[in-house]
Amino acid sequence: MAALSGRPLVVLGMHRSGTSSLVGVAARLGAALGSDLLDANEFNPRGYGEHREVVAIHDRFLAAQGLRWDAARRPDAFEGEAARDARGALRELLLREFASAPLFAVKDPRLCRLLPLWKPLLRELGAQPAYAIVLRHPLEVAASTARRDGLAPGRAHLLTLEHLLAAERETRGAPRAFVRYEELFADWRAVAARLAERGGFAWPRPPEAAAAEVDAFLSADLRHHRADGGWPAQDAARYPWLAALHAELLALARDGESDARAAALDGLEASAAAAHALYGPALAALEDERARLEAARRDAEKRARRAERKREELAGSPALWLRTFLRGRRVRGAEPPAP
C-alpha cells in the first residue's frame, strides 16, 4: 500500500485567526505546501498557504451535507459515499504532492471540524501528524471576519467556539502545540522551536538560515485588528463559553497539558453539545433556507446576465432587434389590424 514517508504538520484555527501567518513561517522553514495554492488577495496580501484542491475537496464534502464553511451546524457525515469520495481525492493529492517531502504542512480552517475525515486517511498512509493550533483573541477574529465576510459578531463567535472545541477535542493525546497569534510576531523562533520539539520533527531549513525571510514575511502590516487581551464585561457576559474556552486554551499554551485542564474543556464541550442538540434543528432549518435563497440569488444573477447580453446584441443589430420584436408579437398573438 502506498504511504507517505514524511511528517504532516496540520495547522488549525478559526478563519482569520493567523493560520496563514503560521503556515507562511513553516513554508520558509522548509515545509512543503504543494504546487497549487490559493491566490493572495486584499485580505491576505501574502497568500493563504492553502492548497486550492484541498479547499475544493472540503467544500464539496460540506456541500454534500448542505453546509458551507461558515455553517453553524456541525458536519457529521464522516462515513458514506461523500466521505469516501473526499478521502479518495485527498489520498491521491497527498501522494502526488508530498510523497517525498520530509515535512509538509496542510492548512485550511475547515480542517478544525473535518479532522474525522483526515485522521483515518493519515493513519492509512502511515503518517503521524503534528498539530499546531493558532489562538487569536475572538474579538480580533470577529472584527476580521466582519471585514472580509460580513459576519455578524455573534455568528463569528459561535464559529470560533465550534472550530476550537473540535480542534482541541480531535487532537488531544496527539503531538500538538498551541500558538498565540501575538507570540508568533513577538518571537517566531521560540514558536518554531516549540512546534518542532512537541511535534517530534526537525525543520528542513534551519531557522537562522531563514531568519531574514521570516522577519520580512512577519511584518506588522499583517495584523490589522487588535484587542487589548481581556474581554469587555458585556462581551464576557454575553459569550461566557467562548471567554472560558479562550482562557483555558491560553492556559494550555502557557502551562501545558493537565487533567484539570482537560476536565474543564470537556465540561465546555458538553455544554456546547447540549446546546447544539437543543438548537441544532432550528439551525439546520435556517441553513437550508439560506442555501435556498443563495441558489435563487445565483439564478436571478444568471438570468440578469443573459438578459444584459441579449440587450447588447439587440442594440448592436437593428435587424436582430426587429426579428426578436416580431417573434415576440407572434408568441403573444398579434393584435388585429385596425378597421
Alpha-beta content class: alpha/beta
Biggest beta sheet summary: 4 strands, parallel
* Fold-level CATH name of the largest domain: Rossmann fold
Overall average pLDDT:
90
Number of strands: 4
What is the CATH class of the largest domain?
Alpha Beta
User: Portion of residues in helices?
Assistant: 55-70%
Count of DSSP-assigned helices: 13
Question: What is the overall shape?
Answer: globular
Strand order within the widest sheet?
Answer: 2-1-3-4
CATH architecture descriptor text of the largest domain:
3-Layer(aba) Sandwich
* Structural domains: how many: 2
Write out the CATH superfamily name of the largest domain: P-loop containing nucleotide triphosphate hydrolases
Order of SSEs: EHHHEHEHHEHHHHHHH
Report the β-strand fraction as a percent range: 5-15%
- Computed over alpha carbons, the radius of gyration is 25 Å
Give a short overview.
The protein has helices at residues 19-28, 52-63, 81-98, 111-124, 138-149, 153-171, 181-186, 188-199, 207-217, 233-238, 240-255, 259-315, 318-332; strands at 7-12, 103-107, 130-135, 176-180. It is an alpha/beta fold. Strands 2-1-3-4 form a four-stranded parallel sheet, sandwiched between helices.
Salient structural properties:
4-stranded parallel sheet, 61% helix, 2 domains, 339 residues, globular, Rossmann fold, 4 strands, alpha/beta
How is the secondary structure organized here?
Elements: E1 7-12, H1 19-28, H2 52-63, H3 81-98, E2 103-107, H4 111-124, E3 130-135, H5 138-149, H6 153-171, E4 176-180, H7 181-186, H8 188-199, H9 207-217, H10 233-238, H11 240-255, H12 259-315, H13 318-332
Parallel strand pairs: 1-2, 1-3, 3-4
